[in-house]
Write a structure and sequence with these properties.
Radius of gyration: 19 Å
Number of domains: 1
Distance between the termini: 34 Å
CATH topology: TIM Barrel
CATH architecture: Alpha-Beta Barrel
Shape: globular
Number of strands: 10
Structural class: alpha/beta
CATH class: Alpha Beta
Order of helices and strands: EHEEHHEHEHEHEHEHHEHHHEH
Length: 341
């Protein structure tokens, strides 16, 4: 069962995707700029199957790939496949959900490294809400709107997440963290998209029940942060460059969450190159210090520093490799400054 992790102390990490087409180069860059909290990168420029959603669709019951479209065909009977997911979940049979290399080149590459000296090794799985709202059936009805299918989907992704964690544990890393990539949590409370708090709780419980290390959330949009913190994830990763003001409205809950052992990954460095190039290391540092001061005055600077991680605002797949490296280097520099407090 997943739980909290040790305090990171303002170290640097990343979010997930990179623009690299060489897995070794990608992992080398991750190791150089995020030596304490490296992360398994997804590399969608190598294969479209490494993109979000596709990355974790390999064993989706009823899956159909038609050109660039991925959907579920309900006109055929795939109930045996769904029953198998439930059976595997109950028996924790994760090997059936092992990723093929074309879905996870970066994951396989980092799993070959000796990471016994890192603070924690991080990987990502597509979150059930985002998956269920993005992928539809043949009539373009989102899978999340079918409660039975959504329940099965959460368990399938939990099995995939546990297999990822097992792969990461081969590195000897003392701690592992599986982050649920959930940009569509921005739909919480929407009258258009039917996303409920119970769906989020259920999905989190399904994943965390199989994970031995920590489970976290990444959401690069605004959402109900109070709900996420109430679930006690090991880490919450957000776009602090774009959404800090909204997140800080929850300052009292933030304090209680950090006091319990929760970690916040502050995505203070923009992942978009045009926004990044309009900033400097000093201007981004000023943004970070503003957040630190606002929360530090409320519940103490020592707690803030102990329970923080510094990251880009999102994955870097839309940057070119030199641009992605510049962003990663800036994250590393900000982390060094933060650890100097």
């Amino acid at each position: 069962m997943a739980g909290f992790l040790k305090s990171p102390g303002s170290i640097a990490s990343g979010v997930g995707s990179l623009p690299h087409v060489d897995p070794k180069a990608a992992v080398n860059d991750v190791s150089q700029y995020c030596p304490d909290m490296p992360y398994a990168p997804t590399l969608p420029n190598i294969s479209p199957f490494e993109a979000i959603i596709w990355h974790d669709s390999e064993f989706l019951p009823g899956r159909v790939i038609d050109g660039n479209r991925l959907y579920v065909d309900r006109s055929r009977d795939f109930s045996p496949e769904m029953e198998q997911v439930y059976l595997d979940y109950m028996e924790q049979n994760t090997e059936r959900y092992a990723a093929s290399r074309e879905y996870a080149e970066g994951y396989y590459e980092i799993s070959s490294r000796d990471l016994s000296s890192v603070w924690c090794l991080k990987c990502q799985v597509t979150g059930p809400v985002t998956f269920g709202l993005t992928i539809s059936d043949q009539d373009r009805r989102p899978l999340a709107y079918d409660s039975q299918y959504f329940d099965m989907l959460s368990k399938m992704l939990a099995l995939r997440a546990r297999w990822y964690e097992t792969l990461m544990q081969k590195t000897g890393a003392p701690q592992t963290l599986v982050v649920m990539d959930e940009p569509y949590l921005s739909a919480l409370g929407s009258s258009v998209m039917q996303v409920t708090p119970d769906m989020v709780r259920s999905a989190f419980d399904d994943v965390s029940s199989l994970i031995e290390g920590g489970v976290g959330f990444h959401c690069c949009s605004n959402t109900d942060w109070g709900l996420l913190m109430s679930l006690d994830p090991a880490l919450i990763s957000l776009d602090a460059f774009g959404n800090a003001r909204e997140f800080l409205l929850y300052r009292e809950q933030i304090g209680r969450y950090l006091e319990k052992g929760g970690i916040i990954a502050w995505g203070i460095v923009p992942a978009e190159l045009d926004k990044f190039d309009a900033e400097t290391t000093d201007s981004l540092w000023d943004r970070y210090v503003t957040i630190r001061d606002e929360l530090g005055r409320t519940f103490g600077y020592a707690l803030f520093d102990a329970q923080s991680v510094i990251t880009p605002s999102c994955g870097l797949r839309l940057a070119d490799v030199p641009g992605a490296v510049r962003i990663m280097k800036t994250v590393s520099l900000l982390s060094l400054r933060a650890r100097g407090f």
